[in-house]
Design goal:
Elements lengths: L6 H27 L2 H33 L1 H5 L3 H13 L4 E4 L10 E5 L2 E8 L7 H13 L4 E6 L5 H10 L2 E3 L1 H14 L2
Helix pairs in contact: 1-2, 2-7, 5-6
Keywords: Endonuclease, Hydrolase, Membrane, Nuclease, Transmembrane, Transmembrane helix
GO molecular function: endonuclease activity
Pfam family, one: Mrr_cat
Amino acid sequence: MARRKSKKKQQQESANAIGGLIIFGGIGFSYFAKSIAVGVVAVILGIIVFALISYSINQARINKLRRSGIAEIDKMTGDQFEHYLGQLFHLQGYNATVTQAQGDYGADLVLNKDGKRIVVQAKRYSKNVGLKAVQEVYGAIAHYKASAGWVVTNSRYTPQARTLARSNNVRLVDREELVEMILRVKESRK
């Protein structure tokens, strides 16, 4: 199964394609106009437009991250992150319970909504989250009699963690999805 490209990667690829079209269009324009000077001007204008588009995309991404508050999350302790997620899920209609810090049996939060129970392993990391988090939440599903297990991080996942999660039906919420979730909650509260 192919992995879906992130919005950031899709936007960068689109900007690169536009840049390439502009440059080649300028070269083609110079050929048809029979003037190298016109072609050079077209290429320069194309490069300027491409730079402005790239700058705009980057600024939009920076503003989105700033609005989400992900930089503050990156500074939290693990316990603070667990409580933050509890509040975030509560605002989405879940009955969220943060488990005890020690002996949590692989779940940092237990979510209940619409008769379904979900166990969540929270990982506030500065590096990629590996297999262990997926294994822990998968083990917690049976213990807490849950219907699903999620791992939520402010970071990203290793390829091995993604493979194991896919084969065990564990949902992985990475940095990009967490930012989107935060922004949706903030927007719904306006």
